Amino acid sequence: MNKFILTTASIVMGLALQAQELKVEFKGLKVAEGKLYVAVVDANNKEIRAEVIEVTDKTVSFNFGTVEAETIGIRVYHDANSNGKMDTGFMGIPTETYGFSKDARGTFGPPELSEYLVSLKEGNNLLVINLE
Predict the structure, then answer these.
(1) Which of 44, 46, 57, 69 is most buried as measured by Cβ atoms within 10 A of its Cβ?
(2) What's the fold here for domain 19-130?
């Protein structure tokens, strides 16, 4: 009986903890140098992953591996000159390319989290983000 209960509990827990694999393609980079600063957040805007990715081409693919959250948002900027910050110009407008999942864009500032949240399916997920 105890073996049945443990087996059943393991199956239920396994179903609840199923993870998704996430790969992202970042397109629209103006130069093939510098770094991408990427943040993956959950539906509560809690950062669950942060990556700094070397840029060697104008399109960069990155495999984040297993992501436990079912709903995520991604924000990224291309630090083309590798100075460790997003450069801005007049009125704080970014001069380096950036992007969000679902290619969301804000009007005066970044988009709302709800505009760039993505639901991941079980298994492999490929997202494409076009930086502008």
Answers:
(1) 69
(2) Immunoglobulin-like (2.60.40)
